[in-house]
Specification:
globular; single chain; mainly beta; Maltoporin, Chain A; 6 helices; 22-stranded antiparallel beta barrel; disordered N terminus; 2 domains
Amino acid sequence: MKRNVLLWATLACALTANAQSPQDSIRLEELQEVVVRGVRAQKDAPFAVANIKKQELQQFAKSGQELPFLFSMTPGVLSWSENGVGTGTTYMRIRGAAGSRINVTLDGVSLNSPEDQTVFWANMNSYAAFLGSAQIQRGVGTSTNGDGAFGGTISLATAAPAYVPSLELSASYGSYNTYNVGAGFSTGLLWGHLIFNGAYHETATDGYLHGTSGRSGSYYGGLTWLGGNYTLSYKNVGNFEKTGQAWNGVTAGNDDATLMDDGIRTYKDMYARGLGRFNSLYEALVFDDNGWTFPKNANGNYQTARYKLDNGSLWEKTTDNFYHNHNLLSAAWRPSEHWSHNATLHYTYGYGYYSEFRPNNKFEKYGINASDAQGNTVKRSDFIRRKGLTQHAYGLVYNANFKSREWDVIMGLNLQQFRANHFGYLNYISARTGMATMQAPWSGSQYYDSDARKNDYSAFVKATWHVARAWDVFGDVQYRHVGYTTSGVNDKFIEQADGSFRNQQLDIDERYNFINPKAGISFHQGRHKAFGSVAYANREPERNNFTDNGNYPAPKAEHLLDLEAGYSYAGTNWNAGLTLYYMDYKDQLVQTGELSDIGEALTTNIRKSYRTGAEINADWSPLTWLTIGGNAALSQNRIKDFTEYIDDWDNPRPDDYDYRTQTSASNPNWKPTTAHYGHSTLAFSPSAILNGMADVHYRGFSAMWHTNFVSRQYLDNTDNKERSLPCFSQTNIRLGYAAKGLLGLKEVDFGVNLNNIFNRHYAASGWVYSAVSESSGYTSDKRYYQIGFIPMAGFTMMSNITVKL
C-alpha cells in the first residue's frame, strides 16, 4: 500500500513539469458541486443545517481523530471512542439517534453498511484530509441515497483537485504514542484537461484503555478529465484498520462485581477515582492450580493479567480487522445555463473479522456436546472464536438539476445491490484438565455461515419554487423499495429434545415500499431568515432486529413525522439562530428488557415516542481577529406508555416460553416480571448538549478554545439515575502558526492540540444490566445492576507539523 503511495508521489513529481496554469478553476468547483447537489440542502432550504468547510476539515485531519469528533462541535451531536483518545472504533449520535439512524454519503454514494445501516468510522480514518466540504442535516432533512435518516444526514464531498502542482506532507505525535502521518499531492492541470491527485494517511495509538492499541489508514487516488462543460473522474478510496476492542467498557455495579486496576469495585468509587483503564476483553481472571483467581502483587493489591492459553502464552487482545475499498466512476455535465447532470457508477468491497477470547463459555453456545475421558458431560471451556464477513455493494446514482429564476428542481435515482457472507470459526478450544478432551473435531472448524442480499432502489423529485423575492416553497417526495433476504445458519444455537444443539436457521425474506414526502417554506430578506417544514420518513429494521429475535414475530418498519421551524438573524458582526423541532415516532425499535428464545435482548417496536427540542447558535466578532460563539441543543426525548421486562432470578423464564402467548407449556400460569411507565426518557438521549468556542486568528497565528457540556444520559428507558451516566464537561485548545516562505517552502504550519485540558475523567457512553431477586434483597425499587462505562482519556496532547510545497 505504501509503495502505491510512493508511486503516485513519484509520478506527480515527474508530471508537474508539464503542468499548466489554471485559466478558470471555478469551473471545476462548480462541476464538483453538481456531484453532491442531489443529496444536500441548498441555501435557504427549510431544514436545520450545519456546513463544514475544507479548511476546518484539513485542520482537523492532523488530530488523528475520527470525523464524529469534529461534528460534535455542531448542535446536538455527541461522539465518543472505545479507546478513549478519539481514534479507531468511534460512534456518534445526532439528537439522540444512533449511527444506524444517520444517513452518510460520499459524493452522493451511501456509506452506510446496508445490513447494520450504520457507518463504522474506524474504517474512515483521516477522510477529512481529502474532503472539500461536509454538511450535517439534523432531523429527516432532504431526500438522500441509501438508508433512511431518522436522526440526521451527513453529506461528505471530496475536494476538487488543485489546478496547480502541489505536494503536502504532515506529521503529528502525542499522548499514548498516538501518531498521524500523511501525504497528498496534485499534478495540477496537465495538457489542459487531466489532473491526477492522491493522498495517504495513517494513524496509530496505544489507546487510553488497556489493549486498545490500533493502526488504521486511508488512501485516495483520483483521475479527473476536465472538458469545457463536463468532468469525468475516477476515485479510488480505501482504508484498513486493526483496532483493539473494548466494547465491554469498564464495569461496575452495586454488588462486588468489578475488578479495577487497583481493586475499585463500586460505581461511585470508580467515578471518584477516575474510572480507570481496565478492559475485560484484554485483562481478566487467570486460571491456575487454584482455579479462577484474581492475582495479587507483592503488596497484596489486585493486579490484572491477560487470559492464559494451554501452552502458557497470554492471549494478546481482541482486535477488529477490516479493509474497505470504494470505487467511484463519475460524470458531471452542464449542457446549458439551466441544466446539469451527474451520474456515478460505484463498487465497494469490504472484508473484515474480529478474533475474541471467550473464557469459561458453555459448549452449548457453539452447538457442541462435550465429555471428558470418563464420559462425563463437560459444560464449559475456553474458546477463541473468529467472526467475520465479506461485502460487495454496487450501483448507480443519477441526478438531474434544472435551475431558472423561479425554479430549482432536482430529480434523483439510486440503484444499489448488496451481497454479503457472514462466517464464524472456532480457532481454539482449551483442553486443560477437567475441560473438554474432544478438542480436535471442532478446533478451527466453521460453526456458522449465512448469506445476505439487499436491493435498495429509490427515486426522488425535489423542487424549490421562488414564489416571490423573499419567499421560497419547497417540496420533495421519494419512493424507496427495499428487499432484504438472508439464509443459512446463524451463530446462535437452540437446544433440541434429545439434548443436542442446532444452529438458528435464518430464512428472512422481506420487502418494503416507502413513500417519503417533505414540504416547507422559507423566508429570506435582508438580515432575516425563517423557515418551517414537515417531513415523513420510513426505515426498515436492521439485520440484528431479525436475527436476534429468534422465533419472536418479525420487527416492523419504523416511521417518523418531523416538524421543524427556525429563525436566524445576521448582524453586522454577529449572528444568531433558533431551530425548534418535534419528531414523532411510530413503532420505534428499542430494547425493552425482553429476551428472545435464543437469549438475545429484543429490540421491540414501541407504539409511540417522540423527541422535541430547541437548537440555538450564535457568534460574535467584536474584533477582526476574534470570534466568540456557541450552540446549545436542549431536548426532551420520551417514550409513551412503555412496559419494561425485568430479569427476575427468582422467577426465571421457562425454556419453553412462547412470546406470542406469553405462556409456557410446562407452566401456563408463568408471567414475566414487568414495570410500566406512562412516560420515560429514551436511553442515550441527553437533554442538553452545549458548545462554547473562541477563535483567534491574527496573521499566521490561530487559536481555538472549545468547551463541551453533555447532561445526564440514562442507560435504559426507565428514568433511573442509578443506571445512568453523570453529566460531564471538558475543554480543548488548538494552537497553530503558519509560516509562509520559511526555508524557501511555500508554507510550514505548526500546531498543537490540547484536549481535555482540565483532566476531567468521564464516561461518554456505556451499557447496563439490571435484575430483581426478592430472595437476595434486590427489589424493583433497589435492583441489582451492572454498568459498563466507556471512559474518555484525561488530558492529552497532539503536536503537528505540515509542509506545503
